[in-house]
Amino acid sequence: MMKFGIIGTNWITDSFIRAGRKVDGFELAAVYSRTERTASEFAAKHGVRHTFTDLERMAASGEIDAVYIASPNSLHAEHAIACLRKGVHVLCEKPLASNAAEVARMLEASEQSGSALMEAMKSTLLPNFAAIRASLPKIGKIRRYFASYCQYSSRYDAFRKGTVLNAFNPAFSNGALMDLGVYCLYPAIVLFGKPRSVKAGGMLLSSGADGEGSMLLEYDGMEGVIQYSKISDSSLPSEIQGEDGTIVIDRISQPQRVEIRYRDGRIEDASVGQDDETMKYEIEEFIRLVKRGRRESETNSHANSLAAMEAVDAARRQIGLRYPADDR
């Protein structure tokens, strides 16, 4: 069994635990929170034996083999490095950090300690993403990758009334690009590699966080077009366009239906079955690589995570989006 500690006590950790309990080898052993009350309440809800309010103590306790980090984006690097230095394996929510400099420090800590580090980008580890990748040769030479994730945030209602919640607070390295845009960007990196160049546009809110934006990724012979928003909705699917056909993806963040539409009019359903608890696949991948003595996933690799964050940094520079973490 792999004994997990939890850092962060929000809804995403509830989802993680539900999924983890479907995975062989997963054991929930400890929870960390800044306050004893929060830690105890979360532990009682999920039947966790050990609680900690000191992260260093949890990492050195011997009660855990690995941590799942779901703290605010601005704290990912700090929390991950503290655990890695104690020999604890780290599965860290997306985005892996606030910027590429932080990612580089995390990768260095992983290398020095020999402990595994993986970005919990679930979409690229789903069976239907594997189906997308396997379908690429069927559509001929790839010419365009288009990904859209525009979902109006309920927290924007509070923002419009004058209350800035964490989702739109740059102090936590939050906003549309970090929350939704990375879901569009990361698959492009996994499928096609690091782009030659990035061009970006976006809209900053009065808080300094971004509400929406777009990116143009330049590759040899093809381009990637990305749009994302937390202040408007879109029902557009995503596509990978080739010279002989197009792969249509219902939701780039969590593909459920994958369809190949050929130029001759044929339509092929390329979807495969996958569990409704989609986070189970990232947990399985993480446990598998640790058991094999590896520090990184082949899909959500260190190089892919760094390339994605370098593209995010390039986009942020172009739209004038800065975080306090950039000055650390």
Automatic annotation (TrEMBL):
It comes from the Bacteria. Residues 138-248 form the GFO/IDH/MocA-like oxidoreductase domain. Residues 2-118 form the Gfo/Idh/MocA-like oxidoreductase N-terminal domain. InterPro entries: Gfo/Idh/MocA-like_OxRdtase_N, GFO_IDH_MocA-like_dom, NAD(P)-bd_dom_sf. GO terms for molecular function: nucleotide binding. This is Gfo/Idh/MocA family oxidoreductase.
